[in-house]
Amino acid sequence: MKSKIVPVSNVTRLSAAADALLNRQPGMPGMGLIYGDTGAGKTTATTWLITRNNGVYVRALSTTTPSSLLRTIARELDLDPRPSNVETVELIVQRLAETGRPVFVDEADYLVTQQRLVETLRDIHDLATVPVVLIGMSGIERKLRSRPQLAGRMSQWVQFKPATRDDISLMATQLCDIDIDADLLQRLYDATQGSMRLAVVGLSHIEHIGKAKGLKTMTLADWPRGRSFSFSDSAAA
To answer: Virtual CA dihedral for 147, 149, 151, 156, nearest 10 degrees?
Structure first.
């Protein structure tokens, strides 16, 4: 299978939201949220987005404090953290203002319930005027709405939804080196229940079996009866 970003519906909406943040008018809020269930493709898509925009990526932990968050951001910007948080914020803001690099905070679920962390992110956004994008699981959007100091600055909310049948077809066309019959794609779609991660695994296995059989097109009749799309040949044997 090819390794590339496919413009499925979630990726298309993410790209549009990112462009809106990066090209927003002066005075418009510049924070965004990317959220969704596991397996929806958030990690792959956001990694692509961060790379495309030379973003500053940090990952929150259950133990993250304002000081540790600032130190991590500073190091990602090749800055030496200062003794005080105020001085470190000033360094970060100056560097971000100079470079225009957006900031992405993964596992943001750990942050939105802690007032001081919320205020730290708000300060960076307000002072540097660069996009600050939070990445989290489904449910984080409800927590954010209870934090008006952040929610009011959110201009883009991107929910990663289950893959559609068209998404699966597009992925098969752009990722696989063999053709896959529509009936087999429908079976894969039904089996994976919208999980982008499982769909990619399934497409990989379909392609593998098709190539092993020397087929140019893999049909439902060619798929081994009773075989799971989620396991390799060896695991299912």
So the answer is: -150
pLDDT > 90 fraction of the chain, expressed in percent and rounded: 89
- Between CA 81 and CA 84, with CA 82 as vertex, the angle to 5 degrees is 125
Task: Answer whether 157's CB lies under 8 Å from 134's CB.
Answer: no
Distance from C-alpha of 148 to C-alpha of 144, rounded to nearest angstrom = 7
Based on the number of CB atoms within 10 Å of its own CB, is 91 exposed (0-12), middle (13-18) or buried (19 or more)? Answer: middle
Q: What is the DSSP letter of 108?
A: G
Please identify, in words, the CATH class of the domain defined by 9-160. alpha beta
Fold observed for domain 165-236: Helicase, Ruva Protein; domain 3 (1.10.8)
Contacts of 165 (CB under 8 A, 6+ apart): 185, 186, 189
pLDDT in tens, 143-188: 998 888 888 999 999 999 999 999 999 999 999 999 999 999 999 9
Q: What is the pLDDT of residues 182-227, one digit of tens each?
A: 999 999 999 999 999 999 999 999 999 999 999 999 999 999 988 9
Under 8 Å between Cβ of 152 and 29: yes
What is the pTM (predicted TM-score) of this model? 0.91
Question: What is the location of CATH 1.10.8 in the chain?
Answer: 165-236
Tell me the β-bridge partners of 136: 35
Q: For the chain, where do the domains classified as CATH 3.40.50.300 start and end?
A: 9-160
